[in-house]
Amino acid sequence: MSVEYTNPDMVTDSKVTEEPRYGRTADGYGGKLPTRYMVRYGARWHRVYAAQYGNAATVYIVHGGRDLVLDTDTEHALQTREG
What we know:
Blueprint: E1 11-16, E2 30-41, E3 44-52, E4 57-63, E5 66-69, H1 72-80
Antiparallel strand pairs: 1-2, 2-3, 3-4, 4-5
């Protein structure tokens, strides 16, 4: 199993939305926790999800049925966005 990352050249925009009300667990941990972030990857918008099982999370999108971990540049751009 290999980890696939997003191509930063295909990320054309990002936005902060309201916190989704679906997909949350009582303890805050899980493999597909929706975040308030969305990125435009290729021609469409994708929700950014988090896989959280400890103190740190891995953020990713689902594109073409595959989980793509956000590349470093895109992840940093989301962290600095104001919402």
